[in-house]
Structure formats: structure tokens, C-alpha cells
Amino acid sequence: MNKKFWIKKIIGFSILAVAATAILSYIVMSLWNVILVTVLHVSIITFWQALGILVLSKILFGGFRGHCGGHRGSHWKNEMKEKWQGMSEEEREKIKQEWRNRCRVWKRSDNGPE
Question: Taking the domains of the chain in order of start, what are their residue ranges?
């Protein structure tokens, strides 16, 4: 791919991200001002305050991807990998068969009785 293609792609993605953030902020502001002002008697907020609420909620509830420690669930995945490697072939086959049986039961319940 050429350099111009990637520059256009980055600029397009940046514009899309800014537009999506602006739309989300506007929705938060509108919902806050329509619902919470009348129900809870709180103050009306501005667009920038709504953006701040979005950022704050992301920090408090969403976290950030790519932070120290790797991807979500990587600890669990590594732990299970070590456990699997420590099993004998018979134990592995027994677990595989158990999961096959479970999946068959779920398939039957989704499709009705066979």
C-alpha cells in the first residue's frame, strides 16, 4: 500500500472518531438535560460537561486497553494453558469428551428435541 492511502485512512478514521465522540456527547447532554433535570432536579449541563462525563465514566468504569498486564483475560488464559500442559493424555481426552457432550446437549436444546 502506498503512503497516501494510509494518510487518507488515518485522517478519515480521526474524523470519524471525532464525529462519534461529538454525537455521543450531544446524546449524553440531551438525555441529561431532558431526563435528569426534571426527575432529579440537577443543573443543566453543557456539551463540554457532557464530554467530561463521558471521559470520566470511561476512566471509572471502562478502563483502558493496552495497559500494563496485557489483554483482558490473559492471566486466566496463561493459567489454563499451564494446567493443560501439566495433564496426561488421558486427562486431556476426558475433558475434551466432557465438553463435546456439553456442546451436544446445548445444540439439542437450541434446535429442539432430536
Answer: 1-63, 81-114
